[in-house]
Amino acid sequence: MKLDHIALYVKDLENxxxxxxxxxxxxxxxxxxxxxxxxxTYFLSFGDGARLEIMSRPDTVDDEKKHxxxxxxxxAFSAGGKSQVDSLTKRLHDAxxxxxxxxxxxxxxxxxxxxxxxxxxxxxxxx
Length: 127
What we know:
Layout: E1 6-9, H1 13-24, E2 27-28, E3 32-34, E4 39-45, E5 51-56, E6 74-78, H2 82-94, E7 99-105, E8 111-116, E9 122-126
Parallel strand pairs: 1-5, 6-9
Antiparallel strand pairs: 2-4, 3-4, 4-5, 7-8, 8-9
């Protein structure tokens, strides 16, 4: 069995879509819109077959996103090596995204960084 996709509700659908296309090489499908509910979605596909569904609806609640909480915490992307982690982290920092940690080697030996992406959602970048 394989995980098909992860879904993420956001307030600014187009900004989130642009973020993943510009910084992570996502390929987007055409928007789906349900005029009855106001739901709008895109499926973003990544090179290895992973997919992220980003969704918006006018009736969603945008609770504070605390880093240390139960539930889904971050999306993780493998950049391909230490220098790629460094350069992508720098590029995101220069684009105005907060670096939460790293780049660094963690206690379990992984080289990674973590940034706050659109709407405070955490994105981990590993080698």
